[in-house]
Design goal:
- By secondary structure, this protein is α+β, with helices and mostly antiparallel strands.
- It has 5 helices and 28 strands.
- A 5-stranded mixed sheet has the order 22-21-20-28-23, with no helix packed on it. Strands 1-3-6-5 form a 4-stranded antiparallel sheet, with no helix packed on it.
- It starts with a helix and ends with a helix.
């Protein structure tokens, strides 16, 4: 017997509705589970998310301070700049001028402060960026800018030798300042000297306006010397600031040292310690004796005028065309050509304190001793005088600091 049609349709309908209800129930259960059970008291999932978000927004306890204050004007070039931190340690400090040049400095061992290792330039805007971390490793940063003072009174230094020059082994680097210096340590610290090959170079002050640098012994042949004059912003004396920033380089040439024996009236010209020529000379006569000691050539003049009036000898001489003259002291000692000395060369001393070599009037003969010596000498070569009846030349009379012991020089 076939079932009644209506009953079959109703059964199938109930079957479909049951299946649909089952599917909806499963979906509802899945949604409820993914939501963490909205009515649950545990709140585990919600609690974890809240703690993570809160941790990310907690600020660092480190507090960075920058002096001078942001926007400050006319800031002193020394002693005013300092970065510090409370409740943390500095990890990075960057100070730059408007051109992007960084200022060297150092973070203290305890991380609490940063100070520059040099002075700042005058009339310059600087930016400061500092980062610190607290004990939890959270960072704090601070930025600032300021401008240094523009000084009303300034000084510079005039120096020798010239940039790019080649000099003899006795040449110091000598700088004379246009104002007397009362803060010599700050000025000397602003001058750095590097050499290739490396050698210890020390400075010595002569008075308050001259500073010379030299090694313990003569320079080695071929040494390259680079001097950085970082004087811009240095307070040389109260209210007087340097305005010079310059790099000077020079090279040491061959080793030539000439030894004059005033008693024997001869000069031995030595290169690398070997005698290359012996020249008859005349030195200072009695009462006008030539200085003893090591004297460095500081100036070469093909011809010059020598007048006794300029060195305290009255009108004893006035020679307008002295040939082949090389200066040895500021007080007027030269080694030069002499065309009026007659038979003095190699025989007796007849000068007013200079060292004379035979020459001709006008200096045209390249074969005479004075011309040969002039042409084979350079600024910075050394002339040593011995066996004269005078004292040793003063270290500051010319570029003659070699007459001072290394211990006194460094002191």
């Amino acid at each position: 017997m076939r079932p009644i049609s209506g009953a079959s349709v109703d059964a199938r309908g109930r079957g479909h509705r049951g299946l649909l209800a089952l599917i909806l129930g499963v979906l509802l259960l899945a949604v409820t589970a993914c939501g963490g059970g909205g009515g649950s008291d545990s709140g585990e999932g919600k609690g974890e998310g809240a703690d993570s978000s809160q941790a990310e927004t907690v600020q660092s306890k480190a507090v960075v301070s920058i002096a001078p204050k942001d926007g400050a004007k006319s800031v002193d070039t020394s002693g005013a700049l300092k970065v510090s931190v409370a409740k943390g340690e500095l990890t990075e400090v960057e100070v730059k001028d408007a051109e992007g040049t960084a200022v060297a400095g150092k973070i203290a061992a305890d991380g609490a402060t940063w100070t520059p290792s040099t002075h700042l330039a005058s009339g310059t805007k600087y930016t400061v960026h500092a980062i610190a971390k607290d004990s939890e490793g959270r960072t704090a940063a601070e930025d600032s800018s300021f401008t240094t003072l523009t000084p009303q009174n300034t000084f510079i230094g005039t120096f020798t030798p010239e940039d790019g020059s080649k000099v003899g082994v006795g040449m110091p680097f000598s700088i004379r300042f246009t104002r007397g210096i009362t803060n010599p340590e700050d000025v000397e610290k602003a001058i750095s000297i590097k050499t290739e090959p490396a050698v210890d170079v020390e400075g010595h002050w002569f008075g308050n306006d001259r500073l010379d640098f030299r090694p313990e012994e003569y320079w080695k042949e071929g040494t390259k010397v680079t001097v950085d004059l970082n004087l811009d912003g240095v307070e040389g004396r109260d209210g007087v600031y340097g305005k010079q920033a310059k790099t000077v380089s020079f090279t040491v040439g061959r080793n030539q040292v000439s030894v004059v024996d005033a008693a024997k009236h001869t000069m031995k010209v030595m290169q690398d310690g070997k005698v290359v020529k012996t020249i008859p000379v005349t030195t200072g006569k009695p009462g006008y004796d030539t200085w003893n000691g090591q004297m460095v050539m500081s100036e070469k003049l093909t011809v010059t005028r020598m007048n006794g009036e300029t060195v305290g000898y009255g009108g004893e001489y006035d020679i307008k065309d002295v040939p082949h003259a090389i200066r040895l002291t500021n007080s007027g000692t030269f080694i030069h050509g002499n065309y009026w000395g007659g038979g003095a060369f190699g025989n007796y001393n007849a000068s007013h304190g200079c060292v004379g070599l035979r020459d001709v009037k006008g200096g045209y003969d390249s074969g005479v001793p004075a011309a040969w010596f002039f042409n084979h000498s350079m600024i910075g070569d050394v002339v040593v005088v011995k066996n004269s009846d005078d004292a040793t030349v003063a270290p500051d009379n010319g570029l003659n600091g070699w007459n001072m012991s290394w211990e006194k020089w460094k002191a």
